[in-house]
Predict the structure.
Amino acid sequence: MSFDYDLFVIGGGSGGVRAARVASAEGAKVALAEEYRMGGTCVIRGCVPKKLMVFASGYGEMPEEARAYGWDIQDGDFDWLPFRTKLNSELNRLEEVYRSLLNGSDVEIFDSRATLADPHTVKLATGETKTAKHILIATGGHPVRPDLPNAHLGITSNEIFQLESLPKSVLIIGGGYIACEFACILNGLGVEVTQYYRGAQILRGFDDEARGLVAEAMREKGVNLHLGTNIVEMRAASDAENAQILTSTDPAMGGAAQDTAALTEAGSGSGPVWVKATNGQEGVYDQVMFATGRSPSTSGLGLEEAGVAVGRRGEVVVDDYSQTNIPSIYAIGDVTNRVQLTPVAIREGMAFVETVFKGNPTKPDHELIPSAIFTQPELGTIGLSEEEAREQEPVDIYCTSFRAMQGAFAGKSDRVLMKLVVSQATDKVLGCHIVADHAGEMIQLAGIAVKMGATKADFDRVCAVHPTISEELVTMKSPMRSA
Ligand code: FAD
């Protein structure tokens, strides 16, 4: 049977673009369909614009610090619109880079939604159908709002980069990394930030000590973080019914609550929103942002027509080689709901090409993936948390927390955490957790050692680089505790 293509990729994000290019380089005839913008979540509304906003927000604290170092420098205000314009042109540039990489690799691009018609056929929104020997689903995920009346009044991370104006106040719902990163970003840009998280501590799944320190730092920097708290009701603040509520808003809400006059001129997007929380507090915010999770983008994708099995969370079910139950169809990246990170989607794409087009069956490696949370301060992490490790075996905990030289000189109270979780039986470093400025950069490097199976003795053999924050990783002599 002859097909139009050897490979048809659905989705032009991190995983799809890489798989298409690498397969084409192997001599395969490849096509790719993207329904929105080339580059996907990471480039258009994820990692890249977020990190640029992290940089933007970091400048807020700098004048004060610079003054402490002798600079004659004044505080300034952040201007959202010039930043947004520059951000958009950078995203346009990157989108073009992705497009030209595909063109340069002889991948045929369809700027269209694609769905599955059968195990070898893809239907395009343009009405065309294309056949392929292999189909790769790389459609990623999307943010979900909670099932709450008027939830449409809130925005998600998809909308945050394109706001018409920067809100004066925002309520962020959620305690995962996206919620915490945007709480810090917006706080740094001068927005009054309140964050509700229904759990007992933010950043579930990360090392307890590290998440505790991040939460403390966020509060110290001005994020009004409420744990064990969720939203129960929301309405447009302009509703006549709410006008009354506004004038009698609980003073305990502090600056988050505003009077009606202020509300009419504030706001962007959907306009100010009145919110009631599980703790009984009521308040009005210029924006409410839901960072309450993401779901795989599989709805209406034709999975049923093609006979592809779907899991409980709507994810495409795959085996260790990213193959679905239909042998000609594979899936990679967020749509499979394994590890939702850009480098992981890319590596899954490369392992897929290795398996299918190079005849070298390769499983993507999901063990010991380093990652960073770009809060202020950052959290860099690899391996097991103390809590996970001690469930598994007896461990020694090497840990230190201190004020870093640069901030301490400027009178800042920010603390740093360096932590190693070490197996008592093998001396192997099972986990490394860093809370500090640039922890993302540090964990990338420490991650090499941990991935190589370094022991605590190996760390100790390395001479310190002085004076740095990270030298603590090789100078912690005795365990803080055993667990
Ligand atoms: P995506 O990049 O989501 O690409 C899927 C593409 O498929 C999209 O372009 C979509 O439009 C397209 N598509 C969907 N359905 C169809 C269809 N039927 N037809 C045609 N096209 C379709 N990861 C990190 O590693 N570090 C970070 O700092 C980080 N920060 C993030 C911050 C935010 C706010 C968000 C939301 C995510 C972040 N991520 C981060 C996660 C990262 O963006 C994703 O893990 C990664 O983009 C997944 O790549 P993917 O190829 O699976 O899907």
Remarks:
- The radius of gyration is 24 Å.
